[in-house]
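Field log, afternoon session.

UNIT: design team B
ACTIVITY: writing a sequence onto a fixed backbone
BACKBONE:
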């Protein structure tokens, strides 16, 4: 594979995750105090993810992980506009559970057909090996 094809493939796949890239970059390097910065990152990326989700449906169907991440960001944006405490529970105290639920629902259905391992995203503690240890911090 040539370098130009590899570069195009990388950018094509990265375009499926633009809202989360914006979220992480603004949350980490944006102006202001950390708490306000992350709240703003949720709102900005949540708004961006609405348009991005429509784009994914029309031009990149089947990118279920990217669609799940967009759903996660939209829920975070809604919570950021309602309550800082709710956003803190969503973003910090629940850990990766809500992200995995948003992303894993479609993968769970696909896993039953044999395309993806069933249950990895929704029930990481039930699997032995590095996946279970990774999500539980062990």
């Amino acid at each position: 594979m040539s370098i130009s094809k590899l570069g195009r493939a990388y950018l094509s796949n990265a375009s499926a995750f633009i809202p989360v890239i914006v979220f992480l970059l603004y949350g980490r390097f944006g102006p202001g105090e950390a708490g306000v910065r992350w709240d703003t990152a949720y709102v900005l990326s949540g708004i961006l993810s609405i348009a991005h989700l429509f784009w994914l449906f029309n031009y990149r169907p089947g990118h279920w992980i990217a669609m799940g991440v967009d759903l996660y960001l939209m829920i975070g944006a809604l919570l950021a506009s309602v309550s800082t405490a709710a956003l803190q529970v969503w973003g910090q105290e629940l850990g990766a559970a809500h992200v995995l639920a948003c992303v894993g629902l479609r993968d769970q259905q696909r896993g039953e057909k044999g395309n993806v391992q069933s249950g990895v995203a929704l029930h990481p503690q039930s699997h032995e090996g590095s996946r279970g240890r990774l999500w539980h911090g062990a």
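LOG NOTE: Residues 112-138 have pLDDT under 50 and may be disordered.
NEXT ACTIVITY: expression trials, pending approval
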